[in-house]
Amino acid sequence: MEENTNEEITEETKINEILEEIKKDLSDNYYDNDDTVLKNLLEDVIADALSISNRKFKSDKVNQIEILSSNIKKAVKTIYIQRGTEDVKTSGEAGESKTYADSIEIMEKDIIRQNKRIMI
After folding, report:
1. Quick check: is 83 in a domain?
2. E-strand spans in 1-120?
3. Residue 28 CA from chain centroid, whole number
4. Cβ neighbours of residue 41 under 8 Å, at least 6 residues apart?
5. pTM of the full predicted structure?
6. Does 118 fall in a domain?
7. Residue 75 lies in a domain
8. What does the DSSP 8-state code read for residue 52?
């Protein structure tokens, strides 16, 4: 039972480490009262990344998260910044048009292109 607790703490520590890196990268785009929102978003993206890469069943989850951390951070930052426009593909205003990226789809393509997907 004790080993399980240590593994959970290690995983939680890794998630908090990535969370702090994301906050630092977001800088002025991050709002202090969004801690829960950002952590939930990070946990969702981690689950997606592990699933996409076929790594969710590996026993060394912390190492698997580390391998995918750049993909995870990129997706989380993009999703966080695009909040409120989740269902919008393109928009135009005052002569400017914007195209929004599907962050999870891009993350999936990046994971595959970078050979981070495990073949099972």
Report:
1. yes
2. 90-93, 96-99
3. 19
4. 76, 79, 80
5. 0.80
6. no
7. yes
8. H
